[in-house]
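#struct-help
A.M.: can someone run this one for me? Single chain, 223 residues.
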Amino acid sequence: MEFEKLEESIGYVFKNKVLLKKALTHTSYAYENKVESNEKLEFLGDSILEFISSKYIYNNYQKLKEGEMTKVRADVVCERSLYKIACKHNFSDFLYLGKSQKANEKDVRPAILADSVEAVIAAIYFDSGLEEAEKFIIKNLKNPIKIATDHVGMKDYKTVLQEKLQVHGAVIIKYNIIKEFGPDHDKNFVAEVICDGKTLAEGTGKNKKMAEMEAARKALLNM
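D.P.: on it. Structure tokens below:
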């Protein structure tokens, strides 16, 4: 399998291609072909990812409290976030999967793709050291970290709104994303909050969660 396109996408060229291949080798392929899987690399990559992201948050968002830094890190160092990175760089085109895995699942599971990102981080570390691994991590997590810090200290308006609306009994509250606009790298979302079929307010945000929170905040102002 040729790795040039993947290396071009991630911005790093491996000196030792065997390391990259191992990082992309799922346990199903390893078992069928009697080779080593990416599990051990994934284990190390997870620790490197947590350390580098923690250091970046600490150095760049010094006004955040310890609990807020923990929340931001948890928001970006998670399966959902790593899955997005894998999709961005088309990891699924380069994964070594066993025949059984391919036969049983039409699409590669998000967990498998997320794990492969951690394995690649460790592979970069072994190939060139911590500095190169850090470049890859920050390049891919800088924007998600910024978004996470934008709303980490935000009051949970959705919870407050729910409590106020349910003070006289149960009601059905729904949030819908009704519009998206802007380029892929700078998307904006518009959400509406509905209570028992009645639209209460709309809100705009840089991600769906922030848009919903803004809709709830506006609904509270209207009450």
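A.M.: thanks! The longest helix spans residues 130-152.
D.P.: also worth noting: Strands lie at 173-181, 188-195, 198-205.
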